């Protein structure tokens, strides 16, 4: 049995067993055939042709008994070598298949990846088959994925990505291709069924992926925005089609959660115009085209100047002076708000430090500025560089920042508080601030939105809303500011209803730094400012 002792735990695989048995059979056939031939030869020679006589007549037949074992061993080795070769080839094929799969699939979700999508898009557009079938690109972005990562950690983020990938596969039908582009962005190539519109599948995706995802008994809702583009019609190359879907997604994200937009040519024109504006802004920042103007914030009772709000203006070389509404959205979308916001902060603190009276300065902050985690450090650097006392700086934030505050936002507000600066809730009443957030963050002031001021004359309902805000602020030990005051009636209302401060054209228009110092000097002399002081 030594000849047939297997090398792998005394067990032969089917291939080795087949080769071994073939060797045994061939060896046995050799021995028997030799014996039969010798018997026939002996018969021709007139010798006794019997089996026993023939077998004992020569030692060759005794030796032939070992032929089955020898041949079996030889063939077994051949079988083993063949089996090893087959195993190696199988492993190579499996490795190649795994490499191809990994090259085409996302490691986290198991969906196809960007490189696979690019190849299939190129093939589909070149053959025009996808256009004939009405293929649609659905580009998806998870709106609250960053907050989930920041709050619950990357493991929760992976759970969300995996579940979204599973739901995408379930939503796809037929030849649809689900893809993870990277990060929290996905894409589906969808081939609509007869009678199915682009809106129908977008709603299906929102309904499926918009459902809560359980993570350690915590319900997570990532939110979803979708941009839709038509292959061939909205882009004749794969890159054009992808850009069209991305432009539509950009428009959807600017609306609200769980929204979708279908690409239209005017979207590309608007996006190109914004890209041009961003390029001009970059050059404008290098050329110091952005300047500050200041509008006084007045004590409702007494009329003294409490502070100035810093308002950025862009002296555009072709379009003249632009208001913030014309360029701040582009700055936020492009990330330039970090550079611009820091410039405004530095210039406002430096200007306030040079004023002839120790009044405050209010600086507006974009919610985007809280995302880099360095805001408190930049505020501290601006205070140190200018020498401005922290209590003279008032940072104005909007309600949207606290609609669903992330741990980063909460930490930033705490760090700003620790610096000793004031924090004001700007445009209060137009968003969705909860009483819990007002209690939690304890703002120094609530700045009532100008839309309420404009509607004071239209009815008692608006006036009662403002009174309620004033009472709420007093309960929470916050001051109130009525902005947009443009006539005496509005001023009288502010005084009678107990508002602390007022702001608007009724007192002064935004002015440059020199006009601020003249106004402060006139106030110090006890004179009432005239309109000519405004710049």
Automatic annotation (TrEMBL):
InterPro entries: Biofilm_reg_signaling, EAL_dom, EAL_sf, GGDEF_dom, Nucleotide_cyclase, Rev_trsase/Diguanyl_cyclase. Residues 274-524 form the EAL domain. Keywords: Membrane, Transmembrane, Transmembrane helix. The chain crosses the membrane at residues 21-41, 53-76. Residues 133-265 form the GGDEF domain. The keyword Transport does not apply. The keyword rRNA-binding does not apply. PANTHER family: BIOFILM ARCHITECTURE MAINTENANCE PROTEIN MBAA, DIGUANYLATE CYCLASE DGCP. This is EAL domain-containing protein. The lineage of its organism: Bacteria, Pseudomonadati, Pseudomonadota, Alphaproteobacteria, Hyphomicrobiales.
